[in-house]
Design a protein that fits this description.
Layout: E1 5-6, E2 12-13, H1 23-36, H2 40-48, H3 59-80, H4 87-109
Antiparallel strand pairs: 1-2
């Protein structure tokens, strides 16, 4: 049995919620979690409760962005040869664009 955890509001996180996803959904979820810089638990909880996911820049997030941008470039090269665009790629590009736009706003406004 795993240890109980306290959340930011000093509440015990002792309830387990489990659900199944497809391999493609799992891959997409893993990408979004890496890009967010949050734990999987925190990312899923925020999304389920419709709270904003704020990406805090750090070396791990930077590396995830770099790796995902390289993967997107590979996919775009594959598409250039005449193959179609899948929805997962479009979702990943949207997530990266949102993160990069947020990083740009922080730079522009000095936050």
């Amino acid at each position: 049995m795993s240890m109980k955890n306290l959340d930011r509001h000093n509440r015990w996180r002792n309830k387990t919620v489990a659900f199944r996803v497809s391999p493609q959904e799992d891959e997409q979820l893993e990408i979004f979690v890496k890009l967010s810089g949050l734990t999987k638990q925190d990312y899923i909880t925020r999304r389920l409760l419709e709270k904003e996911v704020v990406v805090q820049g750090n070396p791990r997030v930077y590396k995830a962005l770099r790796d995902e941008l390289a993967a997107v470039l590979d996919e775009l090269r594959r598409i250039e040869t005449g193959q179609g665009v899948n929805d997962e790629l479009l979702d990943t590009i949207q997530m990266i664009a949102t993160i990069m736009n947020g990083m740009q706003e922080d730079t522009v406004y000095g936050n």
